[in-house]
Automatic annotation (TrEMBL):
Transmembrane segments: none annotated. The keyword Methyltransferase does not apply. It is an enzyme of class 3 (hydrolase). Its EC number is 3.1.2.2. The lineage of its organism: Eukaryota, Metazoa, Chordata, Craniata, Vertebrata. Gene3D superfamilies: alpha/beta hydrolase. Belongs to the palmitoyl-protein thioesterase family. GO terms for cellular component: lysosome. This is palmitoyl-CoA hydrolase. Residues 1-36 form the signal peptide.
Amino acid sequence: MRQFKCLSGSPPRVVAGSHRPLPLLLLPLLLAGVCIDCYKPVIIVHGIFDGPKQFRNLSKFIKEAHPGTEVTVIDLYDNLASLQPLWKQVPDFRKASMAIMQKAPDGVHLLCFSQGGLLCRALLSTTPNHNVHTFISLSSPLAGQYGDTDCLQKVFHNVLKKNVHYLCYNKLGQKVSICDYWNDPHYRPSYLQHNIFLPLLNGERAHRDMKAWRENFLRIKKLVLIGGPDDGVITPWQSSHFGFYDSNESVVEMQNQEFYGNDTFGLKTLDARGDVLMCLHSGVKHTTWHSNFTVFTSCMEKWLT
Ligand SMILES: *[C@@H]1O[C@H](CO)[C@@H](O)[C@H](O)[C@H]1NC(C)=O
Ligand SMILES: *[C@@H]1O[C@H](CO)[C@@H](O)[C@H](O)[C@H]1NC(C)=O
Ligand SMILES: *[C@@H]1O[C@H](CO)[C@@H](O)[C@H](O)[C@H]1NC(C)=O
Ligand SMILES: *[C@@H]1O[C@H](CO)[C@@H](O)[C@H](O)[C@H]1NC(C)=O
């Protein structure tokens, strides 16, 4: 794993149509509409209680840094609809992304915020023919969520985090998206048995598609994990970097997680390949990650080529 903090700017790119004289050889290709040095399309998946509107600034950052990039924020399950069960949302996000991937022979980038990061993981693991190059996870509870936050209060009025497991770990609860990644470290057996989403994605509960899901996930070339201690929503914030609480609520880092050690879904392989990049920023609140220009230049720009 490599840590990077302040890699601002990316090497200048020459885009077809700029002033550098083109070798004659390339002319026929250009005339045939072949793109010589294009940026890959970027697909953005929003988080809970938001939608495309919240990603206007980020889309602008991308297009200004890399002119000509096709940026699509998938307009599905916006706002309150984001509470729908994740396994219901995944096929629809898959369909919308595949339409973009099929028109991009060189692949696409997937940039997913918060709950969207989990949707994207599920999409990557269950789609054999995806062509996602870089997967950027922007402050996403990748190892689960366990914390009293405003966001939680909107859904479970006045229920304390220690009691949420009663609501979440059953058939009805699993129909609410948050419950699909609710990870109560004090009710591990219940989480493993009744949570129908995260334990499968993490391979914490064995299932017959594990090997295939792992292979699908490993088609990505780079995984960029962005998060930080002042997030205020993702709890523990280290979940954005695949860390999580043990039964004493002490945070166990990614490399010491069992799903990492057993390489159940490909994370260890990806890391050994040098393709897991962690980006950490203090001073960024959850809902401002995607409009912070410093975060964009230091954690995203370089990878979205
Ligand atoms: C976009 O940036 C402007 C200026 O920095 C800010 O006022 C606005 O709240 C941002 N919009 C979003 C959706 O974050
Ligand atoms: C990891 O492997 C050990 C030993 O084979 C096994 O006991 C454990 O359940 C596995 N855990 C996960 C999350 O796969
Ligand atoms: C939790 O804390 C207790 C007491 O400090 C200790 O004995 C135990 O080993 C800890 N458990 C874990 C999983 O670290
Ligand atoms: C943007 O991110 C930087 C960290 O790189 C942080 O210091 C700053 O406070 C953030 N700005 C806002 C408006 O969140």
